[in-house]
Amino acid sequence: MPLPLVPLAAFALRTGAFAGAVWLVRRALVPGRTDQRAEDALDDLGEGLSLHRPADRALEGARQTNAAGRFRRTLTWSGGGVEIDAAWLARLRIRRT
């Protein structure tokens, strides 16, 4: 009995296309670096969300809003647990030209 090759070929083409796309994306990625100053700033954040507009950035026609947030939780269950620490800093600056 002959083996039906059409379904196998279609699967091989889809898998090969996906593997090729993953290879191209992986090749295009540049290794990043860790900025220790940024890591220390994120570690110093308090828990919660804060928004503020710095007074020294209140120039005519330019407004800047800074945001910072941190979410820190420890989840435990029998046999172990995990600590989740998510922190971020953001800046939104709008200028009139």
Number of helices: 2
Largest sheet: 3 strands, antiparallel
Radius of gyration: 25 Å
Would you tell me the structural class of the helices and strands?
Answer: alpha+beta
For the residues shown, what is the average pLDDT? 86
| Element order: H for helix, E for strand | HHEEE
Overall geometric form: elongated
Question: Which range best describes the helical content: under 10%, 10-25%, 25-40%, 40-55%, 55-70% or over 70%?
Answer: 25-40%
The tally of strands reads: 3
Low confidence ranges: none
Straight-line distance between termini: 75 Å
Strand order in the largest sheet: 1-2-3
- Tell me the fraction of residues in β-strands, as a range: 35-45%
Concise summary:
The protein is α+β, with helices and mostly antiparallel strands and 97 residues long.
Structure write-up:
The protein has 2 helices and 3 strands, in the order ααβββ. Strands 1-2-3 form a 3-stranded antiparallel β-sheet, with no helix packed on it. The N and C termini lie far apart (75 Å). The model has no long low-confidence stretch (mean pLDDT 86). It is elongated and about 80 Å long. A hairpin with a 2-residue loop joins strand 2 and strand 3. By secondary structure, the chain is of the alpha+beta class.
Which secondary structure elements does this structure contain, and how are they paired or packed?
Layout: H1 5-28, H2 36-43, E1 48-52, E2 62-77, E3 80-95
